[in-house]
Design a protein that fits this description.
Structural class: alpha+beta
Largest sheet: 7 strands, mixed
Number of strands: 15
Distance between the termini: 35 Å
Order of helices and strands: HHEEHEEEEEEHHEEHHEEEEE
Number of helices: 7
Radius of gyration: 20 Å
CATH topology of the largest domain: Nuclear Transport Factor 2, Chain: A
CATH architecture of the largest domain: Roll
Helix content: 10-25%
CATH class of the largest domain: Alpha Beta
Shape: globular
């Protein structure tokens, strides 16, 4: 399978690459707009290949496959593109990471969702926006509401309870964090780093509120669901000025275990307004 994907990618044929995706798949790569459905995904790859040198070639490093159900699986990949141009000059290497969610349909494995995110060496510049949640139209499900409430307490232990034992997470350019104990420690470090020292800033930090808005819920299998989320975060301001809101895009893969929905994989991607500064360009 991986050899076929690599071979098709190296033809720079968007239709050949899009054929690996299911009809209802979606694609989000870095800070680029999301593509929904095979036709939009084909168009996205067409625009991508138009920006690449014809000689650019792909290599893949694929993590072990993690089965979420008999007909659903998830993998993490590391990609490098490079090669030599027509003059024999070496092309600059470009590295990326991704998560691919697969579903088997009539004995064919197809990609239901693909997410690409920066490497750990890249830097992401977040862009605050003067948007508020009133302009969004949330349909918050019970699990999302409960997670949102737990996140608002800044309690890593409470947050980690929402994950499966073998879950993994990637938050923008963070490393891949595997397993609930490691996820607990990562959130503990995350909130510790955010927490300010001065009293005024502590009050500001404690007033910070994250709102999770469900953009889409898609059933991949009877006990596997994909949820696309818009996340906003802001704190109360003492004056009347509007508070800048940080905006992110997230994808959750949920599995149902013993009747309870848990997070098997969480990916937070930069927003379209954020900047990704490639490690090789610095």
């Amino acid at each position: 399978m991986w050899k076929r994907i690599k071979a098709r990618w190296n033809t720079h044929d968007p239709s050949a690459v899009a054929a690996f995706f299911s009809e209802d798949a979606d694609l989000v790569m870095g800070n680029l707009p999301a593509a929904h459905g095979r036709q939009e995904i084909r168009d996205s790859w067409q625009a991508y290949f138009a920006r690449q040198e014809p000689e650019r070639r792909l290599t893949l490093e694929v993590s072990p496959v993690r089965f979420l159900a008999a007909d659903a699986a998830i993998i993490n990949v590391a990609t490098t593109t490079g090669g030599r141009d027509r003059q024999g000059q070496e092309l600059p290497a470009r590295k990326f990471r991704g998560t691919w969610l697969w579903y088997r349909q009539s004995n064919d494995w197809l990609i239901s969702a693909m997410r690409g995110f920066p490497t750990e060496e890249d830097r992401v510049e977040l862009t605050p926006l003067l948007k508020t949640a009133e302009y969004l139209k949330p349909q918050i499900r019970a699990l999302i509401r409960a997670y949102e409430d737990a996140f608002g307490t800044h309690d890593p232990a409470a947050i980690s309870e929402f994950y499966t034992d073998d879950a993994d997470i990637v938050v923008r350019n963070s490393p891949v964090i595997h397993g609930r104990p490691a996820i607990l420690e990562w959130w503990r470090a995350y909130f510790s780093e955010l927490r300010p020292q001065s009293l005024d800033r502590i009050r500001w930090f404690e007033s910070m509120r994250t709102i999770l808005i469900i953009d889409e819920v898609r059933m991949i299998a009877p006990d596997v669901a994909l949820v696309n989320i818009t996340a906003t975060a802001a704190a109360r301001q003492a004056d009347s000025e509007p508070s800048p809101v940080r905006y992110a895009r997230a994808t959750w893969v949920l599995v149902r275990e013993d009747g309870e929905w848990l997070i098997a994989a969480l990916r937070v991607l930069p927003s379209e307004e954020d900047r990704i500064i490639r490690a090789e360009s610095r």
